[in-house]
Amino acid sequence: MKVKVISFSSFRHVLGKEIEVKLAKGALDMTVADLLDALCASRPALRPLLFGGQELKEDVNIFVAGKNIESDLGLLTRLSDGDEVALFPAAIGG
Predict the structure, then answer these.
(1) CA–CA gap between residue 53 and residue 71 (Å, rounded)
(2) What is the C-alpha separation between 49 and 69, in angstroms, rounded?
(3) How far apart are CA 38 and CA 85, in angstroms?
């Protein structure tokens, strides 16, 4: 399975603007958590930007195919081949 990851702000410094990620598991089994594990394994500097302990930081937004994962199953949101995943920190300020 392949997904495209687009990153913004501080995530872009670690991942670059856009990357294609090949995931080994079958399409029915792959989740956002699996993708983040793969990304953090290959780029350890990403983990502290995404996680506080084992939990996703509150100021991290992840969209799959244009839909916020929080309106689905969170990190257990399933991925499909060809999905576009966007990672960006919350916009704060006035």
Answers:
(1) 22
(2) 18
(3) 14
Give the CA radius of gyration of the chain.
12
Domains in the chain (CATH in brackets) are 2-89 (3.10.20.30)
Q: Give this prediction's pTM.
A: 0.90
Question: What pLDDT score does 90 carry?
Answer: 80
> How confident is the model over 2-11, as pLDDT tens digits?
999 999 999 9
How far apart CA 25 and CA 29 sit, in angstroms, is 6
The helix (H) or strand (E) run that includes residue 62 is strand 60-64
Rounded Cα distance between 66 and 94, Å, is 24
CB of 72 closer than 8 Å to CB of 80? no
What SS3 string covers 38-58? HHHHHCHHHHHHHEECCEECC
CA gap 38, 46 in Å, rounded: 11
